[in-house]
Amino acid sequence: MYAQMIKSEASQEDPEALKAFQDRIDAGSKIEPKDWMPEGYRKTLIRQIGQHAHSEIVGQLPEGNWISRAPTLERKAILLAKVQDEAGHGLYLYCAAETLGVSRDQLTRDLLSGKMKYSSIFNYPTLTWADMGAVGWLVDGAAIMNQVPLQRTSYGPYARAMVRICKEESFHQRQGFDIMMKMANGTDAQRRMAQDALNRFWYPSLMMFGPSDKESVHSEQSMAWKIKMNTNDELRQKFVDQTAPQAEYLGLTVPDEHLKFNEESGHYDFSEPDWDEFFQVLKGNGPCNTERLAARNKAWDDGRWVREGLLAHAKKKRNAAIAAE
Amino acid sequence: MSSPESSPYNDTEAAEHGSPRKTEWPLWEIFIRGQHGLSHRHVGSLHAPDAEMAIKNARDVYTRRNEGVSIWAVEAAHIAASSPEEKGSLYEPSNDKVYRHPTFFDIPDEVGAM
Ligand SMILES: [Fe+2]
Ligand SMILES: [Fe+2]
């Protein structure tokens, strides 16, 4: 559907301008906010950056769940800093989206109404402290796979936001792996918790890269525009190749009996996640969809008096300053 | 955390950049001096009700890891920018004057580094 729309819009645009635009991208130059761009490019970017921003914001919820119950003060401070970073990532990305002509409040309203999506991974619950390890290690790990190549994306503000984000992400993954190491080398009960967290987060992490490219309608155009730098399958393979030896190091078992290093291809063979589950979660039927959206709506509603109060205060101060002149 | 993934949903409504609706906090562009001796550099933007809050928010959003020693916040609506279409005429005069670049002058090797 969406790919069709891009096409029909593109056909109304000046073919010469479209070609010049594509040439600029092919030559590796960055597109900046005030430059001419095809409508489909602008809309796809708003959708992608907005969805990414929402994911950073909603992604604070599963980890925020454990801030008050972290096992030590140090772990609590680390988790708090990590979750604060995610808020920052959301803000960098909203700013990048805003340069395309959509307002942050509009994007927020579209998240709150369910019109825009966020990453399906955050619709899974975090049941034990070991989940903080699994989330940092696997979920941030998968996010890094996606984000590193996006530092070279064709849209300047998006690429620059990605550079900032990537600088901060490796702390996230490392703190998660550190938790996993502690748990995996701990008591039997802690080991079981670590294994259980890996069991629950493995396939949802693989889903983070999206369905196979054979089924992805907007892949091709997005890759030509350098909005998407790799196919979903390429990134998923890279993630498995990187993560499987790490699980082995931890002495944990990846919940996939077909996971095996393939000497011939030089990559791991692995099982696909259950895509029916993925589409169900996307549709709103995951374990925490309702809870997550309700939490975001509540935060927005409860914060309204603060937003309006500060605006009123700023206006009052401005008027007083004018009167004093 | 998080990553973009392909999933179908509708487009979002567009708004004019830089002109907030009545209930929205205005947009501020943030400039940070990384270290003493360097100029302020644009790092991004944020929303805040006034200048004081813009600087406080900038501290949290853009300097969580000692990235700066000084912050400027400028309301985005007050920034005048050249438009890309002017690129040619705006920069041509200086492109003509190649003698502004040191490589325009041939200095004999005997003179040494200059
Ligand atoms: Fe992260
Ligand atoms: Fe993040």
What can be said about this structure in brief?
Chain A has 325 residues and is an all-alpha fold. Chain A is built from 14 helices and two strands; from the N terminus they run H-H-H-H-H-H-H-H-H-H-H-E-E-H-H-H. Chain B has 114 residues and is α+β, with helices and mostly antiparallel strands.
Would you kindly provide a written description of the structure presented here, covering whatever features stand out?
Chain B: This is 1,2-phenylacetyl-CoA epoxidase subunit B. Chain B: Residues 1-10 have a biased composition (Polar residues). Chain B: One of its GO terms (molecular function) is phenylacetyl-CoA 1,2-epoxidase activity. The complex is a heterodimer of chains A (325) and B (114). Chain A has 14 helices and two strands; from the N terminus they run H-H-H-H-H-H-H-H-H-H-H-E-E-H-H-H. Chain A starts with a helix and ends with a helix. In chain A, a hairpin with a 4-residue loop joins strand 1 and strand 2. Chain A has helices at residues 2-12, 15-26, 39-58, 60-64, 73-98, 104-112, 130-150, 156-184, 188-207, 219-224, 232-250, 275-285, 289-302, 304-324, and strands spanning 260-262, 267-269. In chain A, 69% of the residues lie in helices and 2% in strands. Chain B is elongated and about 65 Å long. Chain B is built from two helices and three strands. Chain B has a three-stranded antiparallel beta sheet, with helices on one face. In chain B, a hairpin with a 6-residue loop joins strand 1 (27-33) and strand 2. Chain B has 114 residues and is of the alpha+beta class. Residues 86, 140, 143, 169, 172 of chain A line the site of one fe (ii) ion.
